[in-house]
Design brief:
Layout: H1 25-39, H2 47-63, E1 71-72, H3 74-84, H4 86-90, H5 97-105, E2 113-114, H6 115-140
Antiparallel strand pairs: 1-2
Helix pairs in contact: 2-3
The structure holds calcium ion (2 copies).
One calcium ion binds at residues 63, 66-69, 71-73, 76.
InterPro entries: EF-hand-dom_pair, EF_Hand_1_Ca_BS, EF_hand_dom, S100/CaBP7/8-like_CS, S100_Ca-bd_sub, S100Z
GO molecular function, one term: calcium-dependent protein binding
Region (Disordered): 1-24
Length: 141
């Protein structure tokens, strides 16, 4: 009888796990290519379009400071996390947190976080926030 000890996808407790590909990303990019004309016309952006624009702006505010202008190195990622997600960071006591986040986000292992990798973090945190609020709602009833 053989006992298989190793399980695939096992992670040490406390580490982050992000989906490797944002769902429906390809479909979305097709829509975007078609809708780009309308998206960047002079009308006021919708709330969601504004949020998407803000996401892009925030990323490039930090990615352009050092080295590759289109990617966040570890220093830039740390700066972004501390400035833009300070509440999230202070609630986590792990001193290796930035390293762990960097490791989990950097799916192509080039030691940089590009925009595609960055949005996975935002999506995962947004999902976590939504779960939290749903839980709060449930408890309030
Ligand atoms: Ca950079
Ligand atoms: Ca990368």
């Amino acid at each position: 009888m053989t006992t298989r000890k190793h399980k695939t996808g096992d992670r040490p407790p406390g580490s982050f796990s992000f989906p490797s590909k944002p769902p429906a990303a390809r479909h979305l990019s097709r829509i975007l290519t078609r809708g780009r004309q309308e998206l960047f016309s002079s009308r006021m952006p919708s709330q969601l379009e504004g949020a998407m624009g803000a996401l892009i702006t925030v990323f490039y505010n930090y990615s352009g400071n050092d080295g590759d202008k289109h990617k966040l190195n570890k220093g830039e990622l740390k700066e972004l996390l501390h400035s833009e997600l300070s509440d999230f960071l202070t609630s986590q006591k792990d001193p290796m947190l930035v390293e762990k986040i960097m490791n989990d986000l950097d799916t192509n292992k080039d030691n940089e976080v590009d925009f595609n990798e960055f949005v996975v973090l935002v999506a995962a945190l947004t999902v976590a926030c939504n779960d939290f609020f749903q839980e709060q709602n449930k408890n309030a009833k």
